[in-house]
Amino acid sequence: MEERAYNNSESGQEFTLTEGGPGGAVLRRLRLVRPELGMGSARTALILMVIVWAPLCVLCLIEGLAVRGAKLPFFYDLAAHARFLLAVPVMILADIPVGVRLRQVVRHFLEANLVREEDLARFEKILGDTLRFRDARAAELLVLALAYIATYNAVSGFASQGGSTWFMPDPARGLTLGGYWYAFVALPIFQFLIFRWVHRMVVWSSFLWKVSKLDLRLTPTHPDTAGGLAFLGKGLIPFGAIFFALSAVVSSAIAGRILFSGGKLEDFEWSYVSLFVVGLLVFAGPTLIFVPKLMMLKNRGLMEYGTLASQYTQAFHSRWIEQKSEPSTSMLGTADIQSLADLGNSFEIIRKMRIVPVEPSDFVAMVLPGLIPALPLAATVMPLGTIVTGLIKLVV
Known about the structure:
Layout lengths: L10 H4 L9 H6 L12 H22 L14 H16 L1 H17 L8 H15 L2 H25 L15 H36 L18 H4 L5 H21 L8 H16 L6 H31 L14 H16 L8 H12 L3 H4 L5 H12 L1
Helix pairs in contact: 3-4, 3-8, 4-8, 4-10, 6-8, 7-8, 10-11, 10-14, 12-13
């Protein structure tokens, strides 16, 4: 296999997590994407949305399952519409902000001079290995297999429960025509997009893990209070779009259970908790790779600057307090006091240094979009004003 070349000026610009990978080649062969528009174009999102939803609508109209004919007709299936009219295009369009932001993150390693000169070749090799991992054929087959396994479990699980819906009005008679499109095309595409994002996060984790092994130029007194790695937390923010899409699907599914199956909101609280726990692990988890490195940096900084502080304060005390040596200048206007204050500020930065390179505001910015689809459900058990006030407090 031909080795792809990278150099210091181009590596950060060429790296992208969202162009290529599982499904990329297939979409290009089917002309569902145009290279100049990228994987996350509105055209791709619209085409996939039509592919997964329109045939279901037409087939259900033909079979009389659009508004009647089953306990849950097609037009009343909120979860299906949320999956195919909202989540599918959003997960495609999310390629744009995520791709741009992570490209900036990679470039910042070089622009901030965090990679030492002797490690530049290793950094470029890491980039090349990451892109090959992203485009691995085995990964594409695995994602496809997982998508169909998840689809099979979903459809067979519904059948075992003996429900009645537009894709299976009578479990004893099996799937309808719309049900076959749902089981073999629409739902697998939705599941494929989810597992594709999981694969991308595995690739991103691999990249960060390898970079964390480099001897990076991290400083404990960096004003971002994360050793110079706080920019990694900013890379989480665009993933809020994925949270929004998945939350919309979960919210609509819960709403459907409440409206058509007599469920209660409190019965599904753990569904939301699970969504956000898993989402945080998948999207924010990779930043935890740097925790050991930052912990060692903080401990080393406290020791080194503690030693420096001891030496300086002892000399300061000896000169100005004990006056063991005759001061050559007056205390007024001397730089000794200002230097003492600056040293204290530096030590305070180290003391407050975070070992997780993510600010609380970054977490909030990522998670907040996922809470929006839950507002209508939450409003059924508490005043909307109380909910909005709580969200504002999180932001402010």
